[in-house]
Amino acid sequence: MRDGMGMLSLKVTPFHPRTSELMQGNAWRRWAGFTVASCYEMAPDREYLAIRNACALIDVSPLFKYRVSGKDSLAFLNRLVTRDLSKLSVGQVAYGPWCDSRGKVVDDGTVMRLDDHEFRLTSAESSWRWLGDNAHGFDVFIADESDETAALSLQGPTSRALLEKLTGVRLSDVKYHWMRSIEIAQRPVLLTRTGYTGDLGYELWIRAEHALDVWDAVVSEGASFGLMPCGIWAMDVARIEAGLVMLDVDYTPSPKAFTANQASSPFELGLGWAVHLHKGDMVGKKALMQDRLKTDGLKLTGLEIDHAAFMSAHEELGLLTPLPFIPWRVVTPLFLDREQVGYATSGTWSPTLKKYIALAQVAARVARAGNKLTIDLMVDRERRPFAAVTTTLPFFNPERKRA
Amino acid sequence: MSGYDAIVIGAGHNGLVHAAYLARAGKKVLVLERRPVVGGATITEEIFPGFKFLTGSYLISLLRPEVIRELSLAKHGLELMPLESTLVPLQSGDYFADWPDHDMTREEIARHNRRDADIYPEYAATMKRIALWVKPLLDIAPPNPASNDPRDKMAMAMIAERLRAMSKSDFDLLCRLLTTSAADFLDEWFEGEALKGTKCTSGIIGTFLGPRSAGTGYVLLHHYLGEIDGVFRAWAFPRGGTGAFAQAVYSAARSFGVEVRTNAAVKQVIIKDGVAKGVALENGDEFYARRIISNADAKVTFLNLVDKKELSPDFVNDIRRFRTTSAACKVNLALDGLPTFTSIPKGKEALYRGSIEIAPSIDYVEKAYDDAKYGGWSTRPFMDALIPSLLDPGMAPPGKHVMSLFVQYASSELEGGWNAEKRATFLDIVIDTLSQYSPDIKSKILFKHINTPDELERQFALSSGNIFQGELALHQLFFLKPVPTFAHYKSPIKHLWMCGASTHPGGCITGAPGRNAAMSLLRDFQEESA
Amino acid sequence: MHDVIIVGSSPNALAAAARLLAAKKRVLVLEPSDHLGGPVSSHEFHPGFWADTALSSAPLHPMIEQELGLSIAVLPRRTVTVIGKAHNASEVSVGRFQKAVLPAAFRNGTALLQALHASPVGDLPNMTGSEAEALSMIGAQLLGLGEREMMEVLRLGFMSARELSLELNLPFADRVALSIGSVYGLNEGPFARTNVWNYLVHEALNDGLSGPQVVGGLGRITALLADKVRSLGGEIEMGLGPLAVDVDAGSAWGVSAGDRTVEAKRIASDLDVQRTFGQLIPPYHLEPECLRRVRQVRYRGNVARVFIALRKQPEFAGVGEEDLLGTLVIANDVESIERAWDEAKRGNLPADPPIFVTLPSRGDPSRAPTGAHVLAVTVLYVPSGWTDRSRVKEAVLRLLGEHAPGIEQWVDHVEVNLPVDLEERFSLTGGQLYGGETNLSQSFFLRSMPGCRGGCTPIENLYLCGSTGHPPGYSGMSGWLSAGNLLATA
């Protein structure tokens, strides 16, 4: 594959020897410069059902991982991210965004408190320079552990039982957004109760050289728990159901924004709950104080598209309705009367809710649940307007996620 | 009187573009070219049988999309093939590469410096935003800030308006970029030597300054104004070489009715009572027209083609002080096969198809400048190499290749002057330097050719061999280009105009001076008949 | 509680203090070191021998001098004599810099810069009404020159000393003096463009090669200003050691020295940007983008000051007695100056660094014991991090010996102040004498750094008032303008 003029290749994750064997439909995709599976089987349906009904194993190694240590590590991170980390206990995990000086979101991710003066930060984009630019004057040491750390996401109702079987340890006391050090196949694994599916689930942080051992153990034991390796398409359905935003899809990270108004404030992304303005100084605080009071910006909202109308529009033409099982990621305008009031950023058929749902950015005045907007969708070869009602997020939030 | 509306002196690409625009508007136009071929320095020459050499310009980036569209150049045979990569072989044996893909480039930059990789997209976006702002200025005749003419005032107001529309940080950055050195500017962004080495070369191409000299920031910006099919900062190779581009413009011009005569060297502009009436050729022929437009550079035009009696001493002095010193050379090699660049790893052979830059660090390029700036040449020059035959097999016989090299620095003011022996010596230096990165290249050379500044001057009538018909410098820019108070393509001689790269916006294959001058001249015609 | 605390005590700081006091503000000046004036000061480098430590000249702006009713005695330096070899010449020539025969654009450019220096430069392109008004007045002054002359002035600042010398066909002495004046304090050679701008900047400040000598030494300016500040009711404390500005929630509220904290409504820093946002306050009080701009300001000082105690008045071959009241430039032709820069940019000490020399004791006997003399040498292109004093000393003595034969035998003492020494002594980052290089790219609204208009900073109630801002230099104007801005926003 590497021979010959012009054959270039992307990086592969530590699980690639296994994931490439599973691949049936050659449905690879790029993620942060890596080759990962969109879906292993010919269609993503069964992989999605595993997330909601059994458990799914997702290779999330392309996430960027940084270790932050040193005397000022808490002060440094607390200035960096919008959440107040001072109350984060050792063993706890916090999700949130971080912003630039204009209060626009640079990235979002999790902060794990490994020890008093030791943290791990995960991000969607490389954050090496942003962390470095913010570290001046702080006594901190930042290490990029992205390449030496493999990551698996194990999501779904049977994930806990599977892990308990694998480790012989009771895990019900690992609460939502807490962590524990465990062993799988005699390999040390950091287990965090986190995920990107809105379901009961865990993420496993593994040294890259142990990646295959852990994978093999999980897969072989997983058979009796309904485990399926799962690609990004299925995870994307789940994260839309869970109302979780995705960088580059639902928002443009501020360093990538060509013009200022392409960037988003956390309040626009529905992350206002993660902005703790009462804590000390933080990057972008001044701008965030003002943004919080703004009433003219955009707001993240859920949309329920009138699926019945969508079906009958197809039936009128003598067509079957194609269910969008693979989420779309095309910016699609939303209208109130004839005026554009926002745009949807990603949408999917929700097999669990039996609804056609989407994430959208709409003018704050129409963001409250129950506003009836219009979205143009393709019906065969025609663009037709359909009703889309704003709803609160998440669409799906099972008790087992936190139980 | 032969009834021409306009005579254009010189069939370089701007002369042809200019003539085409005039003819397209219904004017009767005659273009007179000294050489037997059209294109000026935009030329492909078969100096060695079977091998097509790019003896002047070699790539296209700043060509205004309007020119392509308005002259229907695609219809007239223009085919542009974007260059996809840049390879910088390093002295350590490693390399640095710029790929046509975001992920690949990111990974490559990160291999050298992780911080640079993170900030690179922001740098690229910022430069594009600034280029977007500057670009419209390329397409207007520079307004005179001291003038009360409503047209000047409107243009100045447009510029001010655009300035206010920029974000504050972009505006600050633009101002710093214009006034600082390429090295200082890049230091503000990057840490990695190889990345800065290749990026700084945009600041010195065609400019006799090192990357650490203030003034190179502006040249860097100039080279960021290019776009190919809407892709900024892209460089393209025209199928058939840059000569084929000139042929496309020539064909377009002819289709509009332009008459072109080659082997028709203009000796002097005929001026009567302070008004340009026509031109006299070396062979004694005379042609007359309502307007005479010179595509030659400002010095050639006013110091050689115009009787000095017709000009004020102040204007002559202004023209004399117009800076044209140069240090750029053009080398072409006919090769018996593809040379091997030892730093290119297996699997990345695609890099041969892109630009190969010998610019491993800012220090390397600066040293090359230091060697040359006192009237010498670089002992290890900066080079931008290209193997056109990989992009267009028609450039060389099957299995053989052509390599085109843009080389800097060899002074146009060489101590003791240039001669054949010195040209040969410098050519050897170029090849020795190249063999450090491609040890087998010497064994593959069938024929080698160099155009040093004196040769560029002799062949293309470029003062001091300056490839931009005058240095890109702030003090001779925009409303000061080529000289103060004559930046609107006109001259002190009534009906004598300029349309070459000496005028705004300057050098490179842009077509912009030719087009802008035509727009102004057509308005002049209109006002005259009104 | 004080209205304003000023950290630092250069003439800029003191001028700011005086202006604020005149507006009935309670002002406290705090100086970390044990001397006032920053680089505008003198010291006794050998018993009985006094030197103006960092600068050969730093006159107060005439308007400030007048406003404050000060009278500072100066000795003009009427001549600049250039000693050296012209390109390809075998003999040393001695010539005088004929400033008066330079084109009118020099004088017009200088006048315009003086106007700009006395004007609060707005945050282009979005200025406040008064700033726009001030700028449009300068624009009118420019347009008033007429189309042709206006363009001549505009060209000038963009050019290199070398290309301008060629263009004007300047004689040896003029092109060397122009080159030295253009690169003084810059990290560039005479071949680099826009350095004529720097020449004009120093002409406008009147602190260049022919800037006047202050009778009693530069410290005299500081002393007079300090007296004025005290007489207006201002307090000045010095010798406080490292100071810290206290910041809370993005707003400055006081200054601490050790355990002691003094509160104030406003704080003004006379330090450069890097020190203000690195030493006075921890860097993390700034937003990361802003901090990046702080780190982008360039401070590559490369000027050393060497003082020589001489038992006797030196004699320079071909230099007249009265020329010793002026400035002597010892440098070969423009190419040699560029070659010296070539060495410096690679971190080496040039074999023949260009120097300029003054003999302050010639016009002001108080500078040295009777009959003895002080030779003050400004050495260009000593790399920022250079630490070998003896090599600089040797080079200077050799150069002087070549043109003033026998001078070695009258040398009593030599003191070398490298850029690192000047950095240490006067808190000048990189040893850069003007709190940031004075290139065109660090001028006007780009000075001290983009986004710090009129001394404002991103930290509320914290201002900059030193040479790091607009205009550069120690004329007091930067502090004066900053104080004006502070009063306007109070």
Give the key terms.
heterotrimer, A: 403 residues, alpha+beta, Gyrase A, domain 2, Alpha-Beta Plaits, Elongation Factor Tu (Ef-tu), domain 3, six-stranded mixed β-sheet, six-stranded antiparallel β-barrel, 9 helices, 20% helix, C: 490 residues, alpha/beta, FAD/NAD(P)-binding domain, 2 domains, seven-stranded mixed β-sheet, 16 helices, 35% helix, 19% strand, globular
What is the average of the pLDDT values of chain C?
A: 95
Largest interface: B-C, 41 and 41 residues
Task: Please state the oligomeric state of the protein chains shown.
Answer: heterotrimer
Query: Based on helices, strands and strand pairing, what is the structural class of chain C?
Result: alpha/beta
Integer count of domains of chain C = 2
- What is the total tally of β strands of chain B? 20
Helix percentage range of chain B: 25-40%
> How would a textbook summarize the main sheet of chain C?
7 strands, mixed
Q: What is the correct CATH architecture of the domain at 4-42 and 242-323 and 463-529 in chain B?
A: 3-Layer(bba) Sandwich
How would you summarize this macromolecular structure in one to three sentences?
Chain A has 403 residues and is an alpha+beta fold. Chain A contains nine helices and 20 strands.
Protein architecture, described:
The complex is a heterotrimer of chains A (403), B (530) and C (490). With 403 residues, chain A is α+β, with helices and mostly antiparallel strands. Chain A has nine helices and 20 strands. Chain A has three domains: 11-63 and 147-230, Probable tRNA modification gtpase trme, domain 1 (Gyrase A, domain 2), CATH 3.30.1360; 64-145 and 264-293, Alpha-Beta Plaits; 298-400, Elongation Factor Tu (Ef-tu), domain 3 (Beta Barrel), CATH 2.40.30. A six-stranded mixed sheet of chain A has the order 11-12-13-10-4-14. In chain A, strands 15-18-17-16-19-20 form a six-stranded antiparallel β-barrel. In chain A, helix 2 (45-53) packs across helix 7 (232-241). Chain A is globular and about 60 Å long. Chain B is built from 18 helices and 20 strands. The relative contact order of chain B is 0.19. Chains in contact: A-B, A-C, B-C. The interface between B and C is large, with 41 and 41 residues.
